[in-house]
């Protein structure tokens, strides 16, 4: 696979361009401290992954900031503690404050000179606006779960993206989808016939972090 084979690069955002694990842990930290809970970084991320996946399955049309709010409530119930409405909403409202990975802005600015750039994200437009300021690049297209009414790994999200890019004159064979999550992105993208590039943001770390584990093998 050569980059010259493509003219459009599509990206997942949270976990790929935005460091959502650091941002999430920082947002949940004050609640954990207030409730006297001592949880490791991995325990927080793994619990979030399970609870978020269940919430997205139950409420696919709910905007992502609200999904995060309800996910914290699920985590609280699982851990046998309380999460007030204010505490839960504070975590959901913090999405736009999560930091970009240090290499994301420069890499995107460079790629923008050579490729059409698009985002396919499990987020809402208001939250993405704050994140996009940290990325510092104007994407040619942004496709969110708020637009689509479902969450990755639902194939509907990728079908929606392909349809909209097709309207812009982009052939599927010229698209490279780039992401960290094998569960949310690589498995469904490859199932629908897209080529993918893996950015391993958890290099050297154990577990799947804040995403559901998958057995998908690394794309050669």
Descriptive account of the structure:
The structure is a single chain. By secondary structure, the protein is α/β, with parallel strands linked by helices. It folds into two domains: 3-19 and 100-198, HAD superfamily/HAD-like (Rossmann fold); 20-97, DNA polymerase, domain 1. It is built from nine helices and five strands; from the N terminus they run E-H-H-H-H-H-E-H-E-H-H-E-H-E. It has helices at residues 20-34, 41-58, 64-79, 85-93, 104-112, 125-135, 145-148, 155-167, 182-191, and strands at residues 8-11, 116-121, 141-144, 175-179, 195-198. It has a five-stranded parallel sheet, with helices on both faces. Helix 6 (125-135) links the parallel strand 2 (116-121) and strand 3. The longest helix is centred in the first third of the chain and has 18 residues, at 41-58. The termini are close together.
